[in-house]
Amino acid sequence: MTNAPQYTREVGRKFHADGSPRLFPGNTIICFVSPDSPIGQAAGAFQNDLYRQPFGPAFALLPPSSFHMTVMELLCDQVRVAERWSSHLTLDTPLAAADARFVDQVPPLSMPAPLTMRVDRLLYQDNMTLTLQATDAATADALRDYRATVASATGVRFPNHDTYGFHISLAYQLIELTSNETTALDTFCRAWEPRLRDAGSAISLASPVLACFDTMLRFVPAAECFTLLSRQNDNQP
């Protein structure tokens, strides 16, 4: 008799137990990462290899079309607490209304380009991410100043604002691993990390864009927010 799987906190939050995405709408500021770029191709190959491992089914893989670096988290509809919300909006503000307000505030903000980042680590404490670092002081300063400007304009400043770690998400862990699986995963990731670092030694990113999402599988520019199911529901009388 097999033991029932022990699910992580992401099940019932961002994903269902079968790996399909749950509705978890929000908005954010991101830099899209092309799946055809060197890091996009390497990350996709890593995902394919991860899927083939015995512990692969414990993870929900994110499609390469969704690859991005989060520049600044904004609002999630299901996380309506003061420290994770805009100080300019009431906690019951519909997400579509927040989108519209941010559209007026975020795009005009100046962001020096280009942004060049590098892969620092393949991190798998909870979920699978590539942690990123700026390749030079100019990029680090530009990101810090931009985030400060966005925080002032939007009223969004989370408790971890000054320590936020830039990253590219690759997968969400849905099932807790056994000790043997954890050891195997560690070996697997250690083997892959140098390749991912090489492919991501100089990632040139386009300017950040305001984006919206319904699930973790698809992020759309703000101009397309109205196409998302959650926003259509928000706009119903």
Give your account of this protein's structure.
The protein has helices at about 40-50, 95-105, 135-155, 180-200, 230-235; strands spanning about 25-30, 60, 70-75, 115-125, 130-135, 165-175, 205, 210-215, 220. It is of the alpha+beta class. Strands 2-6-5-4-7 form a 5-stranded antiparallel sheet. Strands 3-1-8-9 form a 4-stranded antiparallel sheet, with helices on one face. Strand 8 (about 210-215) and strand 9 (about 220) form a beta hairpin. Helix 1 (about 40-50) packs antiparallel against helix 4. The longest helix has 21 residues, at about 180-200. The mean pLDDT is about 95.
Total tally of structural domains: 1
Give the N-terminus to C-terminus distance in angstroms.
Answer: 52 Å
What percent of the residues sit in helical stretches (DSSP H or I)? 25-40%
Count the helices. How many? 5
Order of helices and strands: EHEEHEEHEHEEEH
Overall pLDDT level? 94
Output the CATH class name.
Alpha Beta
Can you tell me the CATH topology? Cyclic Phosphodiesterase, Chain: A
Class per helix and strand makeup: alpha+beta
CA radius of gyration is 18 Å
Per CATH, the architecture is: Alpha-Beta Complex
Subunit organisation of the chains: single chain
Main sheet: strand order: 2-6-5-4-7
What general form does the structure show?
A: globular
Low-confidence stretches: none
